[in-house]
Design goal:
There is one protein chain. By secondary structure, the protein is mostly helical. It folds into two domains: about 10-100, RNA polymerase sigma factor, region 2, helix turn helix motif (Rna Polymerase Sigma Factor, Chain: A), CATH 1.10.1740.10; about 110-185, Winged helix-like DNA-binding domain superfamily/Winged helix DNA-binding domain (Arc Repressor Mutant, subunit A, Orthogonal Bundle), CATH 1.10.10. Helices cover about 80% and strands about 0% of the residues. It contains seven helices and no strands. It has helices at about 10-35, 40-60, 70-100, 110-125, 130-140, 145-150, 155-185. The chain starts with 7 loop residues before the first helix and ends with a helix. About 15% of the residues are buried.
Length: about 190
């Protein structure tokens, strides 16, 4: 048997055993991480902890767990589960508001709504890399390190990209002011 290559089932079994051995040590850290970030709501933290470990089991079953399997990796999985949770809640709130035809902020003045529409239009005019960087950082509210990872760039390069993207956005947004003023002058 020493001449035969290690079978996939053996690797899956070993990874499963490693996850089981890690479970008792990692559970309090993963749960604590989630509890402190979900408003101190134990049921939510418990659900997300369960989802985290289910995702780890699926990684083991698919043959894609990290080697070695660590608590830090599980906390990273938990971070993704927490982000998914917040996105899911935001989608549900938007759907409920749309169904109920409830205005998110009834005191919201018309100008603020127009500014939001104008900002979206301005964002659409930007180069794709600028649009992606600004959306991930300021709309999705991701830290620069995660934006860098998602864009496949270094943190330093991402910070420089964000600076250029913000400057480009400001210029494009300001150009709209000049165009609007010209339109008002023509209309007068």
């Amino acid at each position: 048997m020493s001449g035969e290559p290690e079978r996939s089932d053996d690797r899956t079994h070993e990874a499963g055993a490693a996850l089981l051995a890690l479970y008792d040590r990692a559970l309090p850290e993963v749960y604590g991480y989630l509890l402190s970030r979900c408003g101190g709501q134990p049921p939510v933290a418990q659900d997300l902890t369960g989802e985290t470990f289910l995702a780890a089991v699926k990684a083991v079953q698919s043959g894609a767990p990290p080697d070695p399997m660590t608590t830090a990796w599980l906390v990273g999985v938990a971070r993704h589960k927490l982000a998914d949770h917040w996105r899911r809640l935001a989608r549900e709130e938007r759907k409920l508001a749309a169904v109920a035809d409830v205005d998110d902020d009834p005191d919201d003045p018309w100008d603020v709504r127009l500014d939001a529409l104008r900002a979206r239009a301005t964002l659409a005019q930007l180069a794709p890399q600028h649009r992606a960087a600004l959306t991930l950082r300021y709309v999705d509210d991701l830290p620069v390190t995660e934006v860098a990872t998602l864009l496949g760039r270094s943190v330093h390069a991402t910070e420089a990209l964000l600076s250029r993207a913000k400057a480009s956005f400001r210029r494009a947004y300001g150009d709209d002011d000049r165009h609007d003023e010209g339109a008002e002058d023509r209309d007068a």
